TrEMBL record:
Residues 1-20 form the signal peptide. Residues 34-116 form the Inhibitor I9 domain. It is found in: Secreted. This is Subtilisin-like protease SBT1.8. Belongs to the peptidase S8 family. Residues 209-237 are annotated as: Disordered.
Length: 775
């Protein structure tokens, strides 16, 4: 599994009672598959002490005529909190028989996810945490953070990393119910007062790979990280400070996580072939039981209804227990409607750049010098020009430098110009090296625009933007004796403009619920330095024999744990806040201007960004600590939201585990949810009206006034225009009326604006996205 941007699309294939997805018994094959089985808990017979006993009995009652091993235990997982049901290994006959039971509401075939693949504290204003915590002493801050536990579902952890040093940390909170599991390459003694939990969940993966129940699994079953991604995300969220950290000399400085005094627990749910839904759900289930406060998932679900999205289902159960859940938005940008993890109870995180860069240069034979980026750390090319080649019209896609596409006779001893796309950037360099090339220029295409992502290449390589790439392509095409020399410039700070929305960051609009604006925010996700696994080289390629304690990676996988760590900080400062209050604080205080005081730019478009790319904006933890007002939402609010989607009772029961709920009280429109942003779909209507409620978390006697920035073609009216909060914790409602002006539908398809509540101390900003029809 390559250690690059982690992104996957989850689409659980629901097998309803009327579905023909299951083969008839006459066509049955003995091969078993993993199914997630949704049970009606109200029908558990009283003779069974626990639901687990009931599940076992239900499976034991199945009969099969297949040749599969009837002695093996079909039960893979018995879920307790995240899901009403279990995961089991079944053949077609068994699945068919189980569907005939009145206690089974549905079966879902297990599906595969793929993962979405240090200066960040300074960039976010966290140089010293005492500067962040106005009104909190250093002792109060440290103690509060020591009580916060972040659970990370990923590829595991490299426990020996200095980022998990527990020096100075007090005893583990007594409420913690987790543990460190043993494995052939992992001892529980490797955990400590910092890394307080490490578990692995592999039954879905092992079942799919054919080694479940075998004597020797293909991959050691333990929490140890053989990929690097999990160690990177865990340490980004809450790594301990490590001085003089770098990737082979790049980005030298002190590496630390967003909440360096918080505790962490690693849940390994991703393996060589990816991440399976049954394992992910088991990891969430166990993390809830263990007692985490924050869950961080740098992997994605797809654009599926919430009742068919494993992460949305598990996250709903976590939020019910007061756990904040952050997920990566995905790396399928800049394509519209490419988002993952769009449930409103999840914090959906996009990616932006830092003010740090790793410059590299290409000097061509025509004396032109172009700038790019690189993390190459080996021996340079020297100063002598080298032949430069580009295979534009090759039938073998040699311009993309796919494996096997380059002819060594044409490449040996030369620099190759490769177009970005299709395969991993570092793999392109390996392909060039294996064909005898001595260097590579990696040129962006229109899809990636001017976004530059630095990589630890195996040979001298420089990545350049689309404009520069087009100039180099033109040069190579016009000069049969084209040459190039590549050189490298180390680390540069205070880059302007920054942040910029990353081209790869997935975009809205939200296709699952158009009335919920996603992503929620962006955070640092480009060229992020964090801890790394010593089991694999920094490029993530099997051929990379280099070893490093830290690595630089890019992706929404990297931005997600930044927000998870910041949520832990807010949880420590405000333990009484709900997950939705923490989310609101991060959203309404986010900024939408860069360090040049210009609007945020989009790396792919080369123009200004919009809320479908950056959501509410880039997180600002200093202001999020004291947001003034928050948009809070309870479980009952989310139930009303779900009821407004016209799901069936059985579909709702997948998400809403407790019995006795009903939809007599539901929102007339999903957009009535008390969300910190607005997404308005006019459709055939000219008027849309929403009511929101604000809770005062600032001072008593606070007074706020509203200002509105309406998109062209829309009138926005807010009533009242002034809110007075006499007490802390007091709630006040306001109503917003959106009116589409005559002719606006024909003049524009969409637009953006904002609604801001202000007083001298605070600015509580909500982005507004308007669409006249489906896009």
């Amino acid at each position: 599994m390559p250690s690059i941007f982690f992104f996957c699309f989850l689409l659980l294939q629901c097998i309803s009672r009327s579905s023909s997805s299951l083969e008839s018994p006459n066509n049955n094959v003995a091969k078993k598959k993993t199914y997630i089985v949704h049970m009606n808990h109200n029908q558990k017979p009283s003779i069974y002490p626990t639901h687990h006993d009931w599940y076992i009995a239900s499976l034991q009652s199945l009969s099969t005529n297949s040749d599969s091993d009837s002695d093996s235990d079909p039960l893979l997982y018995s879920y307790k909190t995240a899901y009403n049901g279990f995961a089991a290994s079944l053949d077609q006959n068994q699945a068919q028989a189980l569907l005939g039971s009145g206690s089974v509401l549905g079966l879902y075939e297990d599906t595969l996810y793929q993962l979405h693949t240090t200066r960040t504290p300074e960039f976010l204003g966290l140089e010293t945490q005492t500067s962040l915590w106005a009104g909190h002493s250093t002792e109060d801050l440290g103690q509060a953070l020591h009580d916060v536990i972040i659970g990370v579902l990923d590829t595991g952890v490299w426990p020996e990393s200095r980022s998990f040093d527990d020096a100075g940390m007090p005893k583990i909170p007594a409420r913690w119910r987790g543990e460190c599991e043993s494995g052939e390459d992992f001892s529980p003694k490797l955990c400590n007062k910092k890394l307080i939990g490490a578990r692995s969940f592999s039954r879905g993966f092992r079942m799919a790979s054919g080694d479940f129940g075998s004597g020797k699994p293909k991959e050691p079953v333990s929490p140890r990280d053989k990929d690097g991604h999990g160690t990177h995300t865990v340490s980004t969220a809450a790594g301990s400070p490590v001085a003089n950290a770098s990737l082979l000399g790049y980005a030298t400085g002190t590496a630390r996580g967003m909440a360096p005094q918080a505790r962490v627990a690693a849940y390994k749910v991703c393996w060589t072939d990816g991440c399976f839904a049954s394992d992910i759900l088991a990891g969430i289930d166990r993390a809830i039981e263990d007692g985490v406060d924050v869950l961080s998932l740098s992997l994605g679900g797809g654009s599926a209804p919430y009742f068919r999205d494993t992460i949305a289902i598990g996250a709903f159960a976590a939020v019910e227990k007061g756990i904040f859940v952050a997920c990566s938005a995905g790396n399928s940008g800049p394509t519209k409607s490419s988002l993952a993890n769009v449930a409103p109870w999840i914090m959906t995180v996009g990616a932006g750049t830092l003010d740090r860069d790793f410059p590299a240069f290409a000097v061509l034979g025509n004396k032109k010098r172009f700038s790019g980026v690189s993390l190459y750390s080996g021996k340079g090319m020297g100063a002598e020009p080298v032949s430069l080649v580009y295979f534009k019209n090759s039938s073998k896609s040699s311009n993309i430098c796919l494996p096997g596409s380059l002819d060594p006779a044409l490449v040996r001893g030369k620099v190759v110009l490769c177009d970005r796309g299709m395969n991993a950037r570092v793999e392109k360099g390996r392909v060039v090296r294996d064909a005898g090339g001595v260097g590579m220029i990696l040129a962006n295409t229109a899809e990636s625009g001017e976004e530059l992502v630095a990589d630890s290449h195996l040979l001298p390589a420089v990545a350049v933007g689309r404009i520069v790439g087009d100039q180099i392509r033109e040069y190579v095409g016009s000069d049969p004796r084209a040459t190039a020399v590549l050189s490298f410039g180390g680390t540069v700070l205070n880059v302007r403009p920054s942040p910029i929305v990353a081209a790869f960051s997935s975009r809205g609009p939200n296709t699952v619920t158009r009335q919920i604006l996603k992503p929620d925010v962006i955070g640092p996700g480009v060229n992020i330095l964090a801890a790394w696994s010593e089991a694999i080289g920094p490029s993530g390629l099997a051929q990379d024999t280099r070893k490093t304690n830290f690595n630089i990676m890019s992706g929404t996988s990297m931005s997600c744990p930044h927000i998870s760590g910041l949520a832990a900080l807010l949880k420590a400062a405000h333990p009484e806040w709900s997950p939705s209050a923490i989310k609101s604080a991060l959203m309404t205080t986010a900024y939408t201007h860069d360090n040049n005081r210009s609007q945020l730019h989009d790396a792919a478009l080369g123009s200004f960004s919009n809320p479908w790319a950056h959501g509410s904006g880039h997180v600002n933890p200093q202001k999020a600590l004291s947001p003034g007002l928050v948009y809070d939402a309870s479980t009952s609010d989310y139930v009303k939201f779900l009821c407004s989607l016209d799901y069936s009772q059985e579909q709702l029961q997948i998400l809403i585990k407790h019995s006795g709920f009903n939809c007599t009280k539901k929102f007339s429109d999903p957009g009535q949810l008390n969300y910190p942003s607005f997404s308005v779909i006019f459709g055939d209507k000219r008027v849309v009206r929403y009511t929101r409620r604000l809770t005062n978390v600032g001072d008593a006697g606070s007074v706020y006034r509203v200002t509105v920035d309406a998109p062209p073609g829309v009138s926005i009216t807010v009533k009242p225009t002034r809110l007075v909060f006499d007490k802390v914790g007091e709630r006040k409602a306001y109503t917003v009326t959106f009116v589409s002006n005559k002719g606006a539908k024909e003049a524009a398809r969409y637009g953006f604006g904002s609604i801001v509540w202000r007083n001298p101390q605070h600015q509580v900003k909500s982005p507004v996205a308007i669409a006249w029809s489906a896009l």
